[in-house]
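Onboarding guide, step 5: your first structure request.
Type a short instruction followed by the sequence, for example:

Predict the 3D structure of this protein.
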Amino acid sequence: MIQLGIQSIQLRGQASNKSEAIKLVASLLVANGNMQAAYSDSMLQREKIANTYLGNGIAIPHGLPKDRELILQTGIAVAQFPEGVEWNSGEIVYLVVGIAARSDEHIELLANLTDVLDDAATIQRLAKTTNAMDIIDCLTKSRDSNTQANESNANNNVHVDDFEKSIDVELNSDGGLHARPATAFVEIAKQFQSEVRVRHGSKIANGKSLVSLLKLGANKRVTIRIMVSGHDEDSALKALADAVRLGLEDEAESGHALPVASSQVMLNFSTPPVAGIAGSIGIAIGPIRHFRHEKIVVAVTAQSPDVEETRLNHAIASAKIQLQNLHDEVKERSGAAHAAIFLAHIEFLSDPDLLEAAVCNIKLGHSAGWAWRDSYSKRAAEVGSLEDALLKERANDILDIGRRVLRLLADALEEEPTAMTEPAILVAEDLSPSDTAKLDPKMVLGICTAAGGPTSHTAIIARSLDIPAIVGAGPAVLNYQDGVMGILDGHTGNLYLNPSEGDLVIARNAQQDQQDQRMAENLACYEPAMTTDGHRVEVVANIGAAAEAEQAVNAGSEGVGLLRTEFLFLQRSEPPSEEEQYKSYCEMTKALNGLPLIIRTLDIGGDKEVPYLSLPSEENPFLGVRGIRLCLARPDLFKPQLRAIYRAGMTGPVKIMFPMIATVEELLAAKAIAEEIRKEMNANPIEIGIMIEVPSAVLMAPELARHADFFSVGTNDLTQYVLAMDRLHPSLSRQADALHPAVLRMIDLTVKAAKSAGIWVGVCGGIAGDPKGAAILTGLGVTELSMSIPSVAAVKAKVRKMSYTESVALAKRALACSTAAEVRAL
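The system replies with structure tokens like these:
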């Protein structure tokens, strides 16, 4: 082992550039008799042909092999630069470890250095220490004793990092400990105060860190050891072991079924194929277009660590809001199983290891953007190096959430991302879940990725969007130029580039057959939803952006039953002005051309925190200041929105809807402010309704109906409050079923109270867009069903196929059920 003495350590070094830093550490090696002065030039020469930046603030400059004769005795020296030295573009070094090695005597030291490298907190300490022995101890501490202890304990099946309280459990999960089950495990572990660790073989993970669990590489049917230590360790161990045995909600993967083999006749093309893996069935014909992310530029360093840490926290909070909104959109459009990945993404953003590494980098003087990118990139690389194919795919998820936050921290965005100006087949190395979920099926004819597999989220979401897709086609597909004509066959997993005219005819005929079938299904989307015995149900759309109003009309919607106005308030540094809101609402009334528009006032709080509002932290935000409570507490937000709505009411049939009404007092207070605004503006009266989302509103529905023009049941929130299950909880969300009899009985009570008062009831939660739910809701007496745009045609078709008498009978049977499963079995 190399002896490292105080004479080999330079504290508080100063250098304006990399060359000066190398010369300083080289002078220590020369002074200690390790090398001749000429070897300093050799160290500088190496920098021109190789990068000696090791990562995380450490560099290891050394000379060229041809100059080893200049080394007198193997040794190292360390120069500390508390202010940091820029090594290469974007690389800041705090510890320069100069090496003069004639053979491999320095390998053990480098092994210790590698251990230190992954410990950002230790590097932060060493970068600022005023005691040379701190650096010496870290780099020369022998690992022999630890190794021997581990080997000895391994023989007895005891490990130095194991807690006394533990249990071995087989992973009852076909996919192993991948993102979804790992998310569920973390959520359960966080409910307990005890420390939780998980062992798989020789690897140990923090049981409350999603990234740490993924790094275990625990694939299907392996045995893991769950270890706990703390005052509630018995309860924690039982809960975690039971969850693992039950599969950690892995059955939700059934929603991600692989593409079903097509019954169509296999197409025979003469053009040689680029072979991939079938990801989503269908035929796409068109030019290819390469997908490119924008280049996110962030500063390397920053002046104030406190400011940068605040920026990071705000960016993460905003990213969580985006992901929750994306989850809700995908869930409404494609179901809970397809949307569940975004719950895992939210959990990634709460990962303590990921955040701690970034914060440590910030305290070393880096900007929030640089620190965050360094943290998530390293974790993605670790997960990507795992052997299990399914687990390796989760590295793309880490990169996805990393880029989402990084974009919010960007100093600049260069190289505009791919903008689809004409329909094309999108070709990419890979697509993140967020990238895929945002794709416009009208512009993206098909998807072909070089990487990924049929279980990748690119494939899963492509199927939910009904976009033909091929994955795992290999890097060669990236070599073709934009504009090359292609045929993508999602049934076989083949891409045909520069096809012959004959092949194009074959593909077009097959595509036309598919389109004819779809057209037959959608032709009736503009017909009213009238049951076979003449009962009319109004089918309208939930929207969250101005552009979606026209899409809703084109899909057959008879209006907008819920406009989520939060889109105007999110992803910005200040609230929107009255004028901005007015213009947005007017854009919608114009697109709707006389159809009704129900505008829900601002519903923020709980799961939609907005950093610029500086709301105080709440122990349970779902029971705190959210929805109408926030509006009443912040008239500076509420009144401008009401003015914008009353102005928009002059351009089309607009209604106001207050969210999260729990008491009569809240409704009266909100109506008083609305009436005050109306009188100030001398505007015409507008119908005012309320969301029924909490049990108290249901029980007080007879009283609330005296002061409201209509009710709209928000089944998403009502379900989580009635069943006491967070609808975003990874391990509970699938049980939070709005078709549970308890929820249906709440809706039944609401409808009865409304009918007695002579007002109508709509439902704007997820089950309104579920044909099964629509049938039961119709039977309960709901007169308006509001849903995601793609569900409109299917729900209308469902209503037209049943009689009202049948749906009433169905609803009565559903109310008599004991479980959600029984209801769905009807």
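Each response can be followed by summary notes, for example: The chain has a mean pLDDT of 82.
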